[in-house]
Design goal:
- Residues 10-70 form the HTH tetR-type domain.
- Keywords: DNA-binding.
- Residues 33-52 bind DNA.
- It contains eleven helices and no strands.
- By secondary structure, the protein is an all-alpha fold.
- The model has no long low-confidence stretch (mean pLDDT 94).
């Protein structure tokens, strides 16, 4: 396959996945038809089936793609050792994707709420070991007295809940913000507030 064809394929798949995120978030898996996604991305339905045989295949690809994005957000756990830098970087990355990929966060939340019926055991293989590595690093910080004693999994849950709230409940956030989306300045303040609360809770200054 030529480089040009590879690039066309990559571009089409990315376009389909992003469009599918939006439609699945708005209509749910059961309420979504491949024709809806085709209309969203302005491609013939046959093009979708060329890349993804079934709606389930496409839905799974959306979910696994989101998991990979969030794993990339957490690379700071491997890159740095300073807990302040690691957690500040992680929270900012999570908040960024809550703002730029809110539909994806909603699709993920819906899958988790229903017990991961689509991902099933694939989720265990993709998520469990990854999370345990992050927990081990947090546990080491506690043992080294670099942060206050904390249950590592609970800390991760708090970060996920705080950051993804801005995507999963964006309509609620907008209502409370006088029916307006958060401005860049307001969103930056939100990032700083979440970061400050988390860090201070484990004995670190922001």
């Amino acid at each position: 396959m030529s480089n040009h064809k590879i690039e066309i394929r990559r571009s089409n798949v990315e376009k389909i996945l992003l469009g599918a995120e939006k439609v699945f978030a708005e209509k749910g898996f059961a309420g979504t038809a491949m024709a809806d996604i085709a209309a969203q991305v302005q491609l013939p339905r046959s093009n979708l089936h060329y890349y993804f045989s079934t709606k389930t295949d496409l839905y799974s690809a959306v979910l696994l793609g989101l998991l990979e994005v969030w794993k990339q957000d957490a690379l700071c756990f491997e890159t740095y050792d300073d807990p302040r830098l690691v957690l500040s970087s992680y929270i900012r990355a999570k908040m960024h994707h809550s703002r730029t990929r809110p539909h994806g966060s909603k699709v993920w939340a819906n899958e988790m709420i229903h017990g991961a019926p689509t991902l099933g055991l694939a989720l265990d293989a993709s998520l469990y070991d990854w999370a345990k590595i992050k927990e081990a690093k947090i546990r080491q910080w506690v043992q080294d007295k670099r942060i206050l004693p904390v249950e590592p999994s609970s800390l991760l849950y708090m970060i996920w809940a705080s950051t993804q709230h801005y995507a999963d409940f964006d309509h609620q956030v907008m209502i409370i913000n006088d029916h307006q989306p958060l401005s860049d300045i307001q969103f930056e303040r939100a990032v700083q507030t979440v970061t400050s609360v988390i860090l201070r809770g484990i004995g670190l200054e922001p």
